[in-house]
Specification:
By secondary structure, this protein is an alpha/beta fold. The protein is built from 13 helices and 13 strands. The longest helix is centred in the middle third of the chain and has 22 residues.
Length: about 425
């Protein structure tokens, strides 16, 4: 008798005193990110036919989980659209921001899915809201009946360029950022800048932090665009009120999405833990959770990027001029360079230790090389962090920064 035999592709049986079977299987992953101007205009058919894997037909029904603030601002338009096209929808408005991004919110969505009686193959849940809501609905959908399809319609800039285009879901647990989660791609994400028209300046800056992140490690050209147009796009709310601003808004959003997908696509399941899109996400998870509700997600990422820009300059990978450009742009984009959380003893050492556990025993810390490039390091010391922190404190005092303020935060959640 042979010691082993293959019965089908990917299945092997080894004969011994204790037979052993080895199963190898590959699951194909395909999802779509679709630019969609005026998605809920009644004459638009993009949501109906723009993606074959997510098509809607008259007579269909859908459960729509929507951020409560989005419901207040856009609910009438959204309801009118579905009514016009003969889609029966059940709306579930939920408050969704970082302070309530917990397991209990997932079970609320699961309860609604169960009450709706979803056909898990043919009735994808539709999530309309910011990054927190997309994460929560994605997690609920991935768990319900071991996997129910869902569609993302982000309404914040963070959602458009970051939370809406990857495959990760999650909620916070204890003091851990996104400690519970899954890898569960949506069938499709529809990217509609019109939702940003009702977003306040602070939440636009919040999203620009994630765009700046990919620019600093992957694209000097995108960084230049942000220098030239970033503050104007905040003022314009990415609506393209002039031809120049329309071109800039489309280029910034499109390039940010492309750069993210270019990095994510070969490594969706994070087999490789050296990920340049983790730039700004080494210290920020701890900073964000410790600072709640002071900082939004992108603001915590900005503080991380300011610190690591200083570290890059200290190491000779970033020139003084480049460092000044980066910190000046962050200031112009109304992104914080500092939070008082940084003054707590051991906060950065603890954050780095938690990251090492998350990255399989190594720091794998992406640091900028100039503007538009990066490298990974594993030799950051507490002494280096302490020196960088002092230099960052000096730099931010020179700017006279005194934000983020609470203006626009209370009740705003992450919604448009």
């Amino acid at each position: 008798m042979h010691n082993s035999a293959s019965y089908t592709d990917g299945l092997t049986r080894r004969h011994s005193a204790s037979p052993t079977w080895t199963v190898e299987a590959v699951k194909q992953v395909r999802y779509h990110v679709v630019e969609a101007a005026g998605l809920f205009d009644t004459d638009s058919t993009l949501l109906l036919t723009g993606c074959a894997d997510a098509a809607l037909r008259p007579g269909d029904r859908r459960l729509v989980v929507i951020d409560s603030t989005v419901q207040e601002l856009h609910g009438e338009r959204i309801t009118r659209y579905f009514d016009h096209h003969g889609i029966a929808v059940t709306l579930l408005p939920v408050r969704a921001d970082e302070s309530v991004k917990r397991w209990s919110l997932v079970t609320d969505v699961v309860d609604a899915m169960n009450d709706f009686g979803i056909d898990r193959r043919r009735e994808p849940v539709i999530a309309i809201g910011g990054g927190v809501l997309l994460d929560v609905v994605g997690l609920a959908a991935s768990l319900y009946r071991r996997g129910t399809p869902y569609i993302r319609i982000p309404t914040t800039l963070v959602g458009l360029v970051d939370a809406g285009v990857g495959v990760k879901t999650g909620v916070n647990y204890g003091q851990g950022k996104n400690r519970l989660g899954t890898y569960a791609p949506a069938v499709a994400t529809f990217v509609d800048r019109s939702f940003l028209s009702t977003l306040d300046a602070r939440h636009l800056s919040n999203g620009l932090a994630e765009i700046l992140k990919v620019a600093l490690v992957k694209s000097a050209e995108l960084f230049d665009l942000l220098e030239d147009f970033g503050p104007l796009l905040i003022e314009d709310r990415f609506q393209g009120s002039t031809p120049a601003l329309e071109t800039a808004a489309r280029r910034v959003v499109s390039e940010a999405i492309h750069l993210m997908l270019e990095e994510l696509q070969p490594n969706l399941w994070e087999q490789c833990l050296e990920r340049c899109v983790d730039y700004g996400h080494t210290f920020s998870p701890t900073i964000e959770m410790e600072a709640l509700p002071e900082l939004l997600h992108g603001e915590a990422v900005a503080v991380d990027m300011a610190l690591t820009t200083v570290m890059g300059r200290m190491r000779g990978d970033v020139t003084e001029h480049q460092s000044q450009r980066v910190l000046a742009l962050m200031d112009r984009l109304r992104l914080p360079l500092w939070t008082d959380v940084l003054a707590r003893p051991g906060i950065l050492d603890g954050a780095l230790a938690d990251t090492v556990r998350h990255r399989d025993g190594q720091q794998r810390l992406p640091l900028p090389v100039g503007i538009g490039h990066h490298r990974f390091v594993n030799d950051v010391t507490p002494e280096e962090l302490d020196t960088a922190l002092k230099e960052l404190d000096t730099a931010r005092r020179r700017t006279g920064q005194n934000f983020p303020s609470d203006a626009g935060l209370v009740g705003a959640g992450e919604a448009a």
